[in-house]
Design goal:
Chain lengths: ~475, ~210
């Protein structure tokens, strides 16, 4: 009997790892994987396995087979030619290995369906969770696991954080990892699951939903193999934490074969989108949105209200950002009389006391702070968008520093829009690495707020 | 292979779930149609498994009530059906429902996720604007409401709370019907929303 959902704990946090296909040749995948374990500072036991090599690899004793190790193995990584994989996997089963990752390609993706079915059969027989084949494997920033065969110098590694990322595609996976490493937020776990011969998207979503180190899930999905189970797991997962999803590989609908308008309008891509909407996913349409949304969910509290308090040190940018708000179904808040009174006292007479609050190009950190305090304390404001144009004479590092401090204490979401060149970028990096989401574009900023509010409403049961 | 359910049986099924549809009857002759009309305006249509776009194919005659018009409509529709080589076809007479906002509620089976329900602005606009919302069955009242809100045409379909509640409840009934029956495709298109009520005017159920 196949279990409901795979237990991936041993794969993500193993006390011992066998690397099958480990090689003394630095050009081989098996060598890079072993080397990476040293590079990331893994502290458990490592066992290189190679049936054609005697002696040590990177100072470690090599074994002919996992069966020869005679110790408990939590994770085996298989990186050998496809035709030998099932034989070795069978040995893993007999050796009571608790989880396997098959890096090797040459299965269903090249039409070798039988060979892949054999993998599924062996995994079922031993009740042993198997990730892959044809995948990059996993990365866990806390347990210091990295099964990827990509040389460390080619790919920047993200810092430790609470965003976990699952990807069917290895290429999209490594690309996004590379991008994430330049963002303010950090990574908890990465799972590339390839052909999903055994462990599939439903297993992974279930695992990440219940993983305590994961606050946010981002998912690159091409298709769900078990549609109904996927829905069951999704219903629970999105109630626990935000799941940001991007769908690749949209199939052409068979409109010509349809007997009704409904069938012609409800193709496969539409069905996926419907499922994502209905069960509370945050839908990203491209990689920019994916990263933008991860950023806001990682640091900002939920809010169901769409009344935005906007502060800017440049009038034109305030106009553009206001357009972006309304285009995305948000609106400017109406300031209360009390905060208007406060602002009249603290702002110079040139400042028009209404939203968007244009505090002028000469605004320094003190004026920014006074404006931010008044607007964020206003009960009519649900979330704040602060535009900091660092090109202006008043804005410098003290503005960034003030925003970092205020954002830490804030009860409402605060996001920053700060387009610009290298001077702006330095300050944007400062803010981002301290948990303030910063956006180059007002449109992406507005979309991110919309995503946050939409998900908050779903959680609250509001339409 | 999916099979078109007989119109009258489909209407029977709708009735069982409390879904209103227009009073209809098959007519084998012009005089049967005249009797059905009883002097009130009726609609006459050709029904066939092969004809999906009835109005585009000239297989519908609207708002006819004099004996003369009904007779000529009957012979026109018969010759049209023969000309289009529709094989097995039937002519149906229906009460003419006053005009109003037309919506579509539909259903189909997705191979991954199972039975799905669809809502959109209906009638002839459905394929032009493609303004539709889709959900997996069974749906909750929350889902029904969010389907309406998702549409660009939500202000047309549900301009007030009362209308919104009504459409929600029809969606919930259709969802139940889809779940409890062997239905592979469903079109209720259009459903005409008028004053306080609604009527499904055309229906198509594939088993």
């Amino acid at each position: 009997m196949k279990r409901d959902y795979a237990d991936l704990r041993y794969i993500m946090n193993p006390r011992s790892v066998a690397i099958i296909g480990a090689s003394p040749n630095p050009d081989k995948v098996g060598h890079v994987i072993l080397q990476n374990y040293f590079d990331v500072g893994y502290s458990g036991k490592l066992f290189p396995v190679n049936n054609a090599y005697e002696g040590k690899i990177l100072g470690l004793q090599t074994y002919k087979s996992v069966l020869d190790i005679k110790r408990s193995i939590d994770l085996a990584i298989i990186a050998i030619p496809a035709e030998h994989v099932s034989e070795v996997l069978e040995e893993c089963g007999r050796a009571h290995v608790k989880g396997v990752i098959i890096i090797s390609s040459g299965f269903a993706e090249v039409g070798e369906v039988k060979r892949q079915e054999e993998i599924t059969r062996i995994a079922d027989k031993y009740g042993m969770p198997v990730i892959g084949p044809n995948c990059l494997g996993v990365m866990d920033m806390r347990s210091r696991i990295d099964t990827m065969y990509l040389p460390t110098f080619k790919l920047d590694k993200p810092k430790i954080g609470s965003v976990s990322f699952a990807s069917q595609s290895g290429a999209v996976g490594s690309l996004i990892l590379d991008i994430i490493s330049h963002e303010g937020f950090g990574l908890s776990k990465f799972i590339s699951y390839g052909n999903a011969a055994d462990v599939d998207e439903t297993d992974i979503l279930n695992y990440l939903a219940h993983d305590k180190d994961t606050k946010i899930i981002i998912f690159y999905l091409e298709g769900a193999k078990r549609g109904k189970e996927f829905i069951e797991v999704a219903k629970k997962a999105t109630r626990i934490k935000p799941v940001i999803i991007i769908k690749g590989g949209r199939t052409e609908q068979g409109a010509s074969a349809a007997h009704s308008h409904t069938a012609a309008l409800a193709g496969s891509a539409e069905a996926y989108e419907a499922v994502f909407r209905q069960f509370g996913f945050v839908i990203a349409n491209d990689l920019d949105e994916l990263i933008a949304y991860a950023k806001i969910f990682d640091t900002q509290p939920l809010t169901t209200g769409n009344r935005i308090g906007m502060i800017t040190n440049g009038g034109g940018m305030g106009v553009l950002a206001t357009d972006a708000l309304y285009k995305n179904g948000l609106r400017l808040a109406e300031l209360s009389e009390e905060s208007k009174k406060t602002l009249r006292k603290s702002m110079p007479p040139i400042v028009n006391i209404r939203l968007p609050l244009d505090i002028g190009g000469d605004a320094d950190d003190k004026r920014f702070a006074a404006a931010l305090d008044a607007v964020s304390n206003d009960p009519n404001v649900d979330a704040l968008m602060v535009i900091t144009l660092f090109q202006t004479p008043g804005a410098d590092s003290r503005v960034a520093s003030m925003l970092i401090h205020r954002s830490m204490e804030a009860k409402k979401p605060i996001i920053v829009v700060s387009p610009g060149g290298s001077y702006a970028q330095v300050h944007n990096d400062m803010m981002e690495s301290s948990g303030v989401p910063v956006y180059d574009s007002e449109d992406l900023a507005a979309k991110s707020l919309r995503a946050l509010i939409g998900y908050s409403k779903y959680r609250a049961g509001k339409v | 292979m999916s099979q078109l359910m007989d119109f009258m049986r489909a209407q029977e099924l709708l009735r069982k779930y409390g879904i209103n549809s227009a009073r209809s009857s098959y007519v084998k002759s012009a005089s049967e149609a005249v009797r059905f009309s009883g002097g009130k305006p009726i609609v006459m249509k050709v029904l066939s498994q092969k004809a999906l776009h009835k109005s585009k194919s000239g297989l519908v005659k609207l708002k006819i009530y004099t004996e003369k018009d009904i007779s000529s409509a009957f012979s026109y529709l018969s010759s049209r059906a023969r000309a289009l080589n529709l094989g097995n076809y039937k002519i149906i007479a229906q009460e003419m429902v006053e005009s109003g906002t037309e919506i579509i509620i539909g259903g189909n089976v997705d191979q991954q996720f199972g039975k799905m329900i669809l809502l959109g602005l209906g009638g002839v606009y459905v394929e032009i604007f493609k303004d539709v919302a889709l959900r997996v069955c069974p749906i909750s009242r929350y889902d029904a409401r969010s389907m309406i809100q998702q549409l660009k045409s939500s202000g047309i379909i549900a301009p007030d709370v009362r209308r919104e509640r009504m459409v929600e409840s029809v969606l919930l009934k259709v969802s139940r019907m889809l779940v409890e029956n062997d239905i592979s495709e469903l079109d209720l298109n259009p459903i005409i929303l008028t004053g306080n009520g609604y009527t499904a005017v055309d229906l198509r159920i594939m088993k």
